[in-house]
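Reviewers of the previous submission asked for a worked example of the structure-prediction workflow described in the proposal, so we include one complete record here. The input consisted solely of the amino acid sequence. No template or homolog information was supplied to the procedure at any stage.
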Amino acid sequence: MKNKNFNLQYLRKTCFISRYKYGNDIVDLGEYILSYATSCNLGCEYCYLNFVKTPSKPVLYENKDFLFKEIEEFIETQNEKYFYLNCGETADSLLTIEHTLLAEGIIDFLSTMAGEYNKNVTIEIRTKTNNVEKMINVGNKNVKVVFATSLIPENIRKTVEPLVSCVDERIENLIKAIDKGMLLGLRFEPIIIRNLDNRNTEIVIKEMMSEYEELIRKTSDLISDNKDKIHTISLSLLRFTKKQFKQLVDRKSNIVWPEMVLCPDGKYRYSRPIRIEIYKNLVELLKKYFGNSIVNKIYLAIEFDYIWKACGLEIRRITDFW
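From that input alone, the workflow returned the following structure tokens.
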């Protein structure tokens, strides 16, 4: 039976593949966005898709012949040897079974193209659903497939992501992804500070770090025998466009921090000292539970170079993690 919660009656009129636009002064990770779907009905409060013009129902584009033609032209004509294609920017990669089947088709086609044109391709499948269990095994493909999922403390998840799988299920999905031949992308994002009682910031951050330590410990315990399968770990604190910030302030949303500042890329973020403190604490927690060498797999998503440097992280492109 067809899923009635999405729409196939759309033809994509712009390119399926585009270079990620990071914004002024943001570290360029060098990834490309592959948009075979648009919009999402998972209802995450912070998601930018809630604040831009998108179809009322999630869309899987119907003109798949153009999609595969564009993929081949892209792989053939680009001078780069290494490519990283992110399939989770404009929609959840595995939102429905139909999304999942198309993702499998794209992986299979990319595998053929990578071999034919001698290119190194990594494709990121990012999801908050449990549909990875329905995917085929991709371990024999000629591309690297990174299964990425957002990891945030469960008490925050219940408030801002009430319609999606719980964090324990997402952690369990990591093992399922490994069994399907995938590498892991641990995405600790968005990192959200919630201060419902106007308490001291230091106390709030200390409590938040305690929640993240439990989350990191639990993740480490479950994949303890498969830590070599970790491709990358991203850290990214919550940020808003001007439109998002204004609308959430008007709604009196609890995820808006009163001391957010407007940054050079036009996004509102927590202040620089707060961001540096949280990132550094998380890096230390990751080293504690995954070993010191894990720092070589950590990057900051949508951040400025001075934040990377203040946290002691080497600035790298996403393709450098090959």
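The mean pLDDT is 93. We consider this example representative of the routine output the project will generate in years two and three.
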